[in-house]
Structure prediction request, 316 residues.
Amino acid sequence: MCYNPAVSHPAPLATTLAGVELRNGVIAAAGTCGYVDELADAIDLSLIGAVTTKTITREPREGNAPWRMVPTPVGMLNAIGLANMGLDAFLEREVPRIRACPTTVIASVGGHSIDDYVAVAHALDETREFRALELNVSCPNTSTGRTFSSDPAALAEVLRHVRAVVEHATLFVKLPPDMADPCAMAAAAIESGAQVLVLCNTLPGMAIDVTTRAPRLSRGTGGMSGPGIHPLVVRVVHEVYSAVARSARVPIVGVGGVSTWTDAAELILAGASAIGMGTAIFADPRSALRVVRGLDRWVCAQQCTSIGELVGQVRL
Ligand SMILES: Cc1cc2nc3c(=O)[nH]c(=O)nc-3n(C[C@H](O)[C@H](O)[C@H](O)COP(=O)(O)O)c2cc1C
Prediction:
């Protein structure tokens, strides 16, 4: 039974992430589709599994000064710096639109302190509009964005506090790609209440204008995304799945450099139950639909009835 968007059927791509049911495991990654439905003009959102909001912080944020995006030969560097309207405006203006969104919406939660994360997560959870909250503890573009992914103890502490105030939504945590010990971080996250691991955010990088000799991003450094980080993310997903997540039965969302269905399939074989797409969606929002169709054909070609049968099935 292969993919036909006109027909509703128990799709081979349907997946459940710790109770969050998705019609397929293709997710628009945080920061790449606006607050809720900015992609709706470009694609039919009901054809993808979920969209993730840009990260919401307690205070409104302008983000970093321009330039804050630079293309690279293998993707891009961004230093947006969590620009967003802030929690109160998001609750007032955007949350009412979420009910009309034809796919699952995951809210991304940011902050500078434990109090911040707790306040934003609690307020968003109280709305009961989000099936999942994704804790972004891995933004490389603010001074405090990676404080809580610097070591397992810091991560455990913020998660325990957030876990205590989140009653309705499933708790995702999004980690960086350059952790010294990804398995220790994943284990700490799971022990402290994370129900889904999102691997990974962008990788710190830098570009220099050789004429002016100045960094090309105003902040100096930025986060690398796109095809250049894909093999790194496949490796991190594989390690975390094999050593921690499989035995704990905690699903992984693999995010990093997915442009085609084969990139997505690699992440599934490495151990991801779903995949996120960011940079490719900027270039062409319809790439997400091509990934859905390609994965559907792949599951058929692998003679499986569900994509779940292929999770972690790399032959070593
Ligand atoms: C312009 C831009 C903005 C982003 N904003 C956020 C954000 O607000 N929150 C977040 O958790 N990740 C953010 N990310 C990271 C993406 O969600 C994703 O983890 C990363 O880009 C790797 O995936 P990709 O290679 O498919 O782009 C952003 C990425 C880009 C390129």
Q: What stands out?
A: Helices lie at 87-98, 114-127, 152-165, 182-191, 230-248, 261-270, 279-283, 287-301. The pocket of flavin mononucleotide is lined by residues 29-32, 54-55, 76, 78, 80, 82, 108, 136, 174, 201-202, 225-226, 229, 255-258, 277-280 (CB under 6 Å).
